[in-house]
Write a structure and sequence with these properties.
Number of domains: 4
Radius of gyration: 30 Å
Helix content: 10-25%
CATH architecture of the largest domain: 3-Layer(aba) Sandwich
Structural class: alpha+beta
Length: 529
Amino acid sequence: MLEKDGRWLVVSQQVVEAPAGSVLRTLRVSRTGDELQDNMAVTALVPNREVISLGEPVELVATVHNFGQSQSPTSVLRWSQGQDDALGITSVPALASGASTTVKLEHPLSELGVHELSATIESGDGLVADNEAKTQVHVAEGIPILIVDQSRASHYLQAALGEFGQEKGSVFRGTQVTSRALEEETLSDYEAVILTDITELTAPTVDELTAYVRRGGGLWLAPQSGSSPALFNEFLASGETPLSPASLVTITGDADQREHFEVISPPTQMHPATALLADTERLDLDDVRIYRRYLYTTPLPNDLSVLLRGGQGHPLVIEKTLGKGRVLMQAFPLDGKWSNLPSMQAYVAMVYEWLWYLTEPSQSPLNLSSGGAYDYLLPERSEIEQVTMTSPGGESDPLTITTAADGTRRIRVTETQVPGDYRLEFSCDGKPVDEKGFRVERSRSESDLTRFYDVMLEFLRIEFGMLFDDEKAGTTSVEAAAVARRQEPLWFWLLMGVILFLVGESALAYSIAKNRTLTTPGARLSKAR
């Protein structure tokens, strides 16, 4: 229904807030008979990830839709980076009326920072504005990860991450501590925690971990070979809202009997954390051997998902969401004592893919759908005092910083109906501290040129005061009707009273009053094409 459509609500709000004397333009596109104009549109452009590492290829998927009533001819899709950097051309097949297709491109990004990528359909049709879609991708380095470990798992993780990512350009940067030292760490300084050492956990530390995950942090539980199931359950799997996805029951298998092992079934479900691992032609996940593992309680809670299973179907890696964050738990250590996984190619891929997945909730979004909410958690100990948002139209407004009971501060933007680029400026004492941005995509429904029937037009006349010219049959031009906005009754009578008062004054006073009277039209509001 039109009264529930966010786009018309935006129009209504603009009409209400427009100054007296403003002019509202409404555009009507004439058509031949009842046929729609030809209209090809790029309705979406989606990257496989919004944040990638330096030199990593980003996979872009563009969706092309034929909104016309006749079959479209074969066309081409042009890919670009920024304003002038062309990335290539892809052929788009002919599409029947109402049909869609997806077109893909892989391209490595070799510079740090946020990059704007676009896909444009080369099609001569009646609505040029929807021929292009854009998206933003951030090439990042130094995403901080905390590794709580006292086993050889840290050596394998260090090798996988490249000396814990200390060299320039590394996407993840690891810091290793023991469980005793964990309580001294400020968890908000890290975007994911890998926890293998539970020997000296304390209840306050577990409470801090739980709050950290609820705020959007990622936690990877991989108990080392010497961990006690009872101790694990006491700290991580007990209470009203346990941090662990499941409890540990006992241990099965013999790490010294290498002729007896379990295999990992390649994942078949579509899950972002396992999509790459499922490609057994490129990775050797099906060659992994597990000799010993922990057993979970059965049945598993209903709110869990299973990422990896053993050859007999039993769960090996499980996941739960807690607040805004994610918790992964695996039934065998990250070192080579109970499996050969660390010596396989799949190990490096698994470490990176799971860290990407765990850190995703803590990353501020770069691309939003129309009407979506932008939620950003301000860093702890931040000096930020003011946040100003500049919308696509150039208007700047202050945002409210809310403080939760636990002391965390965040901003939330919900007025995102207008597509385009939004900029956020963070400042302290009037001086800029940081800057971020996000992009709002246009609604797919804007490409639908379905004729407005009389009942719809009448609704727009009554609700929003829109007036439309009669459509001229056979014309191919765009007709526009400019309608002056009605003066509010209160302002009208006030203005008349001032004029009557000034009539009795002297000629000089009358001249001054005349110069102060509004004689030029105000701002014009134009409906977006």
